[in-house]
């Protein structure tokens, strides 16, 4: 059965690629297009992940997609009223706002006109035409089509998305917030935005990606973001998932770090039907630092799968990871963290921690913290815990007059907050805090 | 640092000491595997019809399976038609006492340091010695029989206790469980059978020594341990094998059944030929070991010291079905040169208030790869299940690897699961601390490695701990004084 779905989906995509190619107006001989074709080839050879695929063992994405989509029409543009867009914007956040609707860069709602010449923000489609040199060096060079079939699918159909280039020695004055909105009000929607973010030497920038859906139809978002962190550069990254219960989301964030760079990431999935977040970080030089924080709050039948991978390629780098999850009702949480230390990467320090709370007997957590170490002079450790709220802590609060509900909410909030407290800008942190509190009071009583 | 290198070099160049081959005439089946071979083995062992049917069922299932490729090990493809599936030392009359045992056979054991008489007299260990595929001597049998304990070779059990064998064989590891267990079920030559009756506490450690002998013989033992209500047994398994260039396949199956309030302690010291420095030769050790805590308050404990084999691929597991049952797994896996080990455990919590503990210590040296792969699974009705896992890796030398693949799956909100893992090398500061106190570098390394493994070695029964330490010292020769 699932094999039949797999084959159908795949065939639809291959058909769809032909019409996509025809729409490109003679660009089909360009360098970028060769990459797309190559990606399609790798997608064709692998196809959608089956039940036996180790990387998608706990996430039956193919089955779920097969039920909902035929993939005969992959990219579509949509129109949304500006009032709705404004509802999504993070309150009190002074930022360069970019709005992507159904995978298309919306010039209308994005305010990126008055930027410093050292910073360029444009749609990927524009960048293909105007920034050929940069694109041919960086585009699809980090997110590997062969290692992930959804990256291959995204690359094959890559056309729209965001391109950001921060010059060397420039500290971007305010955060860049990218809002991805799927308009599933009238019909099912498939969006495959593709982003490329280049940060030059000694520069600093904060980037927020957040995902939403409008309407009650099913949506599928397959997003790939490639982030290149230059020497001594600092990048603060946050990914916020707020799609609806019918949304399918596959996100690949591929990070490449040069010497002495710092990358801080926070991935908070607060809503979503079936969500998969891949965070891959390559530390390809000495003195790199990568910090990853993650939070997932699930109820209903939600399913969130966080895969992280840190590839230590060179000596003297540091990585640190903390992912926390609260599962309620019939939800399923998955965590798979991998620390890979290559033979040359001596003196690596790597830490990884995954903590989960199960609140209901129907909730499930599958966690797999992995270490693969090929060097000897390293300090690597990981820990994983699964449990419930501490009775003694509850008692302590209740003895001080708190109701059972508020005591629980308080403890859960404290548990969750640790995972998001490293978000750089106050406005985003407050926004997340507020959402977490609301959700804990609404869904986790 | 140069001293360190020197130590490691000595360690890497230490040769396998137990390599020799005794010349006993073997009664072998022709190479290859087909239904006729299965029938031949069954006929040779004078087995009843149901046993043959069972083997054939397993064989037919095996044909439909593919060799698993997921372990983190690499080896040349195995040609299953190039293996002799049956080889028994020629012996016409079953020996009644030690004196009747082939003297050459006994000399082999003496070389290994397990003289049956010595064992009998000094240590009080009942030894069911398996040389190649047929059990040749069983001691202390009478003494055990007084208590109602059955401890014999598998083929004897098939003949004398068919009702027990029929009931329990394949109940823990079904024939269709995996590729190698199906193969074993089809062609297993012999092994040990052990039954402890209700309420009996076995007064001595039961022990089997395995030894692979004639060239090109795969060993397919099958061990079945049944602990009836309220009984206790401690079972030891230890292995050495002669040196040989061709890779040998070893696919054993061990099944443990623990009824209500029963406790089984299973300890292994494995030191089969690991191949030479360049990875030539050595044993492929693909074992399926599983125990089921079927009754409430039962307990199964696995302890293993793995120093040998070119490739080790095994996961002694516990199915915690009875309420309040306990599963334990203690492991030291040492790999050197080109050895590869992918080992760990599965703890499956089904009953309420079940507990499991995992302590795994890996030491990798030379160009070896050492992986821990474990599963902790808590089912929905396993209320208050508790697990603690700890897996540490120690790296010696910069060409080796240590990997951890823990799977944790929980479906119950009252379960508490903890997992921690670390990877490190012997710190320069630790060595410095020791040398500063007048301990030379070599002894310092020994001290640290010993301390590192202590938690597991302490779990071994007294009689076995000596051998385990000997084997650790042998594998880590040069670095352990």
Automatic annotation (TrEMBL), chain A:
Q: Which InterPro entries does this one have?
A: Fe-S_cluster_assembly_SufBD, SUF_FeS_clus_asmbl_SufBD_core, SUF_FeS_clus_asmbl_SufBD_sf, SUF_FeS_clus_asmbl_SufD, SufBD_N
A Pfam match is: SufBD_N
In this chain the SUF system FeS cluster assembly SufBD core domain maps to: 187-415
Outline the extent of the SUF system FeS cluster assembly SufBD N-terminal domain.
Answer: 10-178
UniProt record similarity statement: Belongs to the iron-sulfur cluster assembly SufBD family.
Kindly provide the name given to this protein in its UniProt entry: Fe-S cluster assembly protein SufD
The species this protein belongs to is: Splendidivirga corallicola
Taxonomy of the source species: Bacteria, Pseudomonadati, Bacteroidota, Cytophagia, Cytophagales
TrEMBL record, chain B:
Where does the record place the SUF system FeS cluster assembly SufBD core domain?
A: 210-451
Pfam families in the record: SUFBD_core, SufBD_N
Q: Which InterPro entries match?
A: Fe-S_cluster_assembly_SufBD, SUF_FeS_clus_asmbl_SufB, SUF_FeS_clus_asmbl_SufBD_core, SUF_FeS_clus_asmbl_SufBD_sf, SufBD_N
Coiled-coil residue windows: none
The SUF system FeS cluster assembly SufBD N-terminal domain sits at: 140-202
Please state which protein family the record places this protein in. Belongs to the iron-sulfur cluster assembly SufBD family.
| Name of the protein in question | Fe-S cluster assembly protein SufB
Per the UniProt record, the source organism is Splendidivirga corallicola
